[in-house]
């Protein structure tokens, strides 16, 4: 009987470790300074490796990161005993990936996307600030996904304007 309890505790510990690992962006969110910026840089790295895939595959990746992120962020909040702790950065990763969906694959857009996303994520223009008040993993994720949408719209507009100047 005690062996079963120990196995259960060990499995629960492994599950908790995996959830925290994902929610904290491979533990990058544990950095003591600017964990959100560090999490966004993880998003940049993922984007660099994924930017050559088809739009459908990229959209699938974004969807998976958002759904897995919402689930793990909600669980991580419970494990860490705090609403939306700064160490949870899966939301920044997902938000940056959303920001770069179907954006030109040039370094200027990668860098501008990073800067715009961080700005929108920090400022949280309407209605993003309200959205982060939602409970659980959805509340953790939705404001950053929204900042990614805002960033994407600005980058798409810039792309159109720049293409007309050539």
Describe the 3D structure.
By secondary structure, the chain is mainly α. It has one domain (2-165). Helices cover 75% and strands 0% of the residues. It has 7 helices and no strands. α1 crosses α3 (55-80), α3 packs antiparallel against α4 (90-99) and α4 (90-99) crosses α5.
Which keywords apply here?
166 residues; 75% helix
How many H/I helices?
7
Number of domains: 1
The value of Rg in angstroms is 17 Å
**Strand residues, percent:** under 5%
Euclidean distance between termini CA atoms:
74 Å
Present the secondary structure layout:
Elements: H1 2-23, H2 35-50, H3 55-80, H4 90-99, H5 107-123, H6 128-131, H7 136-165
What's the short version?
Helix content is 75%, strand content 0%. The chain contains 7 helices and no strands.
């Amino acid at each position: 009987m005690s062996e079963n309890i120990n196995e259960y505790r060990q499995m629960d510990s492994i599950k908790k470790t995996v959830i925290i690992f994902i929610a904290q962006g491979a533990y990058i969110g544990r950095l003591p300074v600017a964990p959100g910026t560090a999490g966004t840089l993880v998003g940049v790295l993922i984007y660099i490796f994924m930017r050559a895939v088809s739009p459908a595959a990229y959209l699938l990746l974004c969807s998976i990161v958002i759904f897995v992120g919402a689930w793990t962020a909600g669980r991580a909040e419970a494990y860490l005993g705090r609403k939306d702790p700064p160490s949870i950065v899966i939301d920044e990763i997902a938000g940056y990936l959303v920001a770069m969906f179907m954006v030109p694959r040039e370094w200027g857009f990668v860098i501008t996307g990073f800067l715009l996303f961080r700005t929108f994520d920090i400022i949280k223009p309407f209605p993003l600030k309200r959205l982060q008040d939602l409970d659980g993993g959805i509340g953790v994720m939705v404001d950053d996904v929204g900042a990614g949408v805002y960033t994407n719209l600005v980058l798409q507009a810039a792309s159109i304007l720049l293409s007309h100047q050539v």
